[in-house]
Amino acid sequence: MQARPRVTACFFGEGAVAEGEFHESMNLAALWRLPVLFLCENNLYAMGTALARSESETNLCLKASSYEIPAWSVDGMDVLAVEDAARRAVLAVREGGPLFLELRTYRFRAHSMFDPQLYREKSEVEAWKQRDPIPAFAARARACGCLAEGDEAKIEEEVAAEVAAAIEFAAAGTLEPVEELARHVYFEGPAQ
After folding, report:
1. What is the maximal distance between C-alpha atoms in the chain?
2. If exposure means fewest CB atoms within 10 Å of the residue's CB, which of 9, 129, 174, 176 is most exposed?
3. CATH code assigned at 74
4. What pLDDT score was predicted for residue 73?
5. CA–CA separation, 137 vs 21, rounded Å?
6. CA–CA separation, 3 and 20 (whole Å)
């Protein structure tokens, strides 16, 4: 409504595609030509249920395109492919409205600490680990000379320190006052 060149990015898993909110959001975004990029992280399992067991149509781009919006799929295990697809998607959204981008990926760990992972074979997880995007990207960066020997360990240390500092900051913080819980949920400006 304000004609700003902003794009709203909405991230969700493939399990959300079965929910009414997904369909309502896609429909309204299409009708109103909203600048929304829908990013679906399809890791093949909604919690502990395989996509093929919960969806009659497993082609998520086909589902999304039924709302008359562009829908693309990208290898979510390839960092550079995701970066390229995301850049192109943002440009497309700015030029013409909503877009659905499926990031085909895989979850190596359990969905939660209470998940015994009885719904998939350990061999499946191990096979997907061979495509782990972090070591794959590091290998590409080393091959092109962008990452030197020892850089990975330094990066890991810096990330661990940043995460530890964030945890310490959060733990030292105070709880939000109850009266503030609904703040910024509804429009708070002057009546028009």
Report:
1. 61
2. 174
3. 3.40.50.970
4. 98
5. 35
6. 28
3-state DSSP helix/strand/coil % of the chain, to nearest 5: 45, 15, 40
DSSP lists the bridge partners of residue 75 as 104
Q: What is the dihedral of CA 48, 52, 54, 56, to 10 degrees?
A: 170
Domain limits for position 164: 132-171
DSSP-based three-state secondary structure for 2: coil
Residues 65, 101, single domain; the answer is yes
Ranges of the chain whose pLDDT falls below 70: 1, 191-192
Beta bridge partners of 39: 11, 101
For residue 41, how many C-alpha atoms fall within 13 Å in the half-sphere facing its CB? 10
**Would you put residue 37 in left (φ > 0), alpha (ψ -120 to 50) or beta?**
beta
pTM greater than 0.90 (yes/no): no
Tokens 């080393």: give the residue.
142
